[in-house]
Design goal:
The protein is built from seven helices and 14 strands. The chain has 283 residues and is α+β, with helices and mostly antiparallel strands. It folds into two domains: 106 residues, Roll (PH-domain like), CATH 2.30.29; 115 residues, Roll (PH-domain like), CATH 2.30.29. A four-stranded antiparallel beta sheet has the order 1-2-3-4. Strands 8-9-10-11 form a four-stranded antiparallel beta sheet. A hairpin with a 3-residue loop joins β9 and β10. The longest helix is centred in the last third of the chain and has 18 residues.
């Protein structure tokens, strides 16, 4: 193996133990593919291979990843559109014989009994640092912790009162991603202690919500996959996190906005006093 099969938006290079997928960067290429750049899929991460007729004189070569082998597909949970499936290669119909040859070559390397769920991620996740803008916050991931910095124009009063959030991956058990292409898209961090279970997404400080132009698939899904991979890699290890001191100007702005919420009757006297003291303590 070692040959290249070029199709719509991608080229697949077949190696002895993996398939290297390089995605194009053209205007018509799905933005998710452009964000991924390239991905190496080990043969051990593949559960099956299909070759079927496509639309308008094309054929489609497709890989089925093993459950749990790819953090991107695990985070996507079946929500990707067919055109954005990174395991799908569309080819002109005249290339069907060559595509069939490589499909047979790959099938020959798969276990005869089929492959069950993977015990660990076999496909590399996008590398941090990563960040994107949701409707109510800017989300950042540095490889060890996830941070949400709330936008006062979009965050609910509950999230604003809770303040900016930082979650070490060692305190997380998983990630829940809902595509922004459906209603109520969001990225929710699942915490090991089970706190905030059942809390609405717009009230949960471990969740950012998407909106028109915020939390696009090509930004939020790779982010979710990277966090999920880090959570799995961290296992049960616990790493103490040093307290982060805030910018005084940022603290002043938050106290000002907290005062506006208080005047509007959205925050009680007691809540205002407690939260103000917490903010001042961060100086």
């Amino acid at each position: 193996m070692g040959d290249v099969l070029a199709g719509s938006h991608a080229a697949w290079e077949f190696g002895s133990d993996s398939v290297l997928i390089r995605y194009e960067r053209g205007l018509r290429t799905p933005r998710l593919f452009q964000a991924l750049g390239e991905r190496r899929i080990p043969v051990e991460a593949i559960a099956g291979v299909t070759l079927a007729p496509g639309r308008r004189g094309t054929v489609v070569l497709q890989l089925q990843p093993r459950a749990g082998a790819d953090p991107l597909m695990e985070a996507a949970a079946g929500q990707l559109k067919e055109s954005c499936d990174p395991y799908r290669l569309v080819l002109p119909a005249e290339r069907e014989p060559l595509a069939g040859y490589w499909a047979d070559e790959l099938r020959g390397q798969l276990p005869e009994a089929g492959a069950g769920p993977a015990e660990r991620h076999l496909v590399a996740a996008p590398e941090p640092p990563l960040q994107f803008k949701a409707y109510d916050a800017k989300a950042s991931f540095d490889g060890t912790s996830v941070s949400f910095r709330w936008f006062w124009t979009g965050a609910s009063s509950a999230k604003w009162k809770a303040g900016d959030q930082t979650f070490p991956v060692t305190g997380l058990s998983g990630v829940e991603w809902r595509s922004p292409e459906v209603t109520e898209g969001y990225l929710r961090l699942q915490r090991r202690d089970g706190s905030a279970a059942g809390v609405p997404v717009d009230q949960d400080p471990a969740c950012v919500v998407f909106g028109l132009g915020y939390g696009a698939v090509h930004e939020s899904l790779p982010f979710a996959a990277a966090v999920l991979a880090a959570v799995r890699a961290a296992g049960d290890a616990a790493v103490p996190v040093a307290a982060v001191r805030r910018d005084p100007a940022d603290i002043a702005e938050r106290i000002r906005h907290l005062g506006e919420l208080h005047q509007a009757g959205l925050v009680t006297d007691e809540e205002f006093s407690v939260k103000k003291a917490e903010l001042l303590a961060e100086l």
